[in-house]
């Protein structure tokens, strides 16, 4: 679970204040909107595990509900409005494409607190939150760079939004930190969860020479292809080792529990404040699953050393020198990319093949 003191301090530091009523008499009704199926792995699964853990920790104080498989668009607005109509006073919308629908509903429901995952729009009763999962992608890259024989890595990407581009770049930078010959090939599937498309993309990448693959998608299809083809891959958002125990090197996972618990407590107490929260390894919002026994000692050592630095806050993945695809310097040696650049990242680092879709 993440550092509670860090979460509460972040919430307290936000500037705008919403005078939320106290819900001490009745359980706080909390709604969640999920982009995919709950299933047993991936992004939505991680959010739902945190929802269940929050219910357990705040037993009697909260009552939660969720709607899964909600498309990003008009359907999302309809679902969010329905959750408001059902009396939910705290609503978490857990995918980037829910940002505008969440903002629209929030403006018409001032008595409800809305939290949107991975977005950038806030309001008096709307905040945003996300994890620095790119830290985990960087660590994945270290293992990939150490274990590849072809020096060609593969990445199955969902949508060309900043959070996904950050993860592709972090993965590549991590790999290049131990192996400067690395190239990363990317295939975009235009879906957060589509096992068939993910499988096809993974098969194509292996055919193109990738012998270690990462993903920013929700199913274990990439790992299953990796195991079938005798190459390696990483779980994403949750531990996916059970689907491909030979191929699964580790997984960058999200633990939203502490954030959900502390946010619910703040709303119940009437002390919730809008703003943004971004947690990583240091705060316990990002966690790495157990390393596969096939990882060589030198790769494990490099991985653990950088993981310790990230956890201590003494290292940031996007610290120069960093060049873009053209070779132009984006960040000089020792310069850390500012947060606003990370939140709007729209370029590939040197070593990533292809172009970002328009």
Automatic annotation (TrEMBL):
This is BMP family ABC transporter substrate-binding protein. CDD domains: PBP1_BMP-like. Keywords: Signal. It comes from the Bacteria. PROSITE patterns: TAT. Residues 1-24 form the signal peptide. Residues 29-304 form the ABC transporter substrate-binding protein PnrA-like domain. SUPFAM superfamilies: Periplasmic binding protein-like I.
């Amino acid at each position: 679970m993440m550092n509670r003191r860090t979460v509460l301090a972040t919430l307290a530091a936000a500037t705008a204040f919403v005078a939320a009523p106290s819900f001490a008499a009745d359980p706080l009704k909390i709604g969640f909107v999920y982009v995919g199926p709950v299933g047993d792995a991936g992004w939505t699964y991680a959010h739902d595990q945190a929802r269940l853990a929050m219910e357990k920790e705040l037993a009697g104080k909260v009552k939660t509900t969720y709607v899964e498989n909600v498309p990003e668009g008009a359907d999302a607005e309809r679902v969010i409005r329905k959750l408001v109509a059902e009396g939910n006073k705290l609503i978490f919308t857990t995918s980037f494409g829910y940002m505008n629908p969440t903002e629209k509903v929030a403006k018409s429901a001032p008595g409800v607190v809305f939290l949107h995952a991975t977005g950038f729009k806030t309001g008096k009763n709307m905040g945003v939150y996300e994890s620095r999962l790119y830290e985990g992608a960087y660590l994945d890259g270290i293992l990939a760079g150490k274990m590849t024989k072809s020096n060609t890595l593969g990445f199955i990407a969902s949508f060309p939004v900043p959070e996904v581009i950050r993860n592709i770049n972090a993965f590549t930078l991590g790999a290049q930190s131990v192996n400067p010959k690395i190239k990363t090939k990317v295939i975009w599937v235009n879906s957060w969860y589509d096992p068939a498309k993910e499988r096809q993309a993974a098969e194509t990448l292996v055919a193109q020479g990738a012998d270690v693959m990462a993903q920013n998608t929700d199913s274990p299809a990439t790992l299953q292809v990796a195991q079938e083809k005798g190459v390696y891959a990483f779980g994403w958002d949750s531990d996916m080792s059970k689907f491909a125990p030979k191929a699964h090197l580790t997984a960058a996972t999200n633990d939203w529990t502490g954030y959900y618990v502390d946010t619910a407590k703040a709303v119940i107490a009437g002390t919730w404040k809008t703003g943004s929260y971004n947690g990583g390894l240091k705060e316990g919002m990002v966690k790495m699953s157990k390393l596969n026994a096939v990882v060589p000692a030198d790769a494990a050592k490099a991985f653990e050393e950088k993981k310790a630095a990230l956890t201590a806050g003494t290292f940031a993945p996007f610290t120069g020198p960093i060049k873009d695809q053209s070779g132009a310097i984006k960040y000089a040696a020792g310069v850390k990319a500012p947060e606003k650049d990370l939140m709007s990242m729209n370029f590939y680092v040197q070593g990533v093949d292809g172009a970002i879709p328009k």
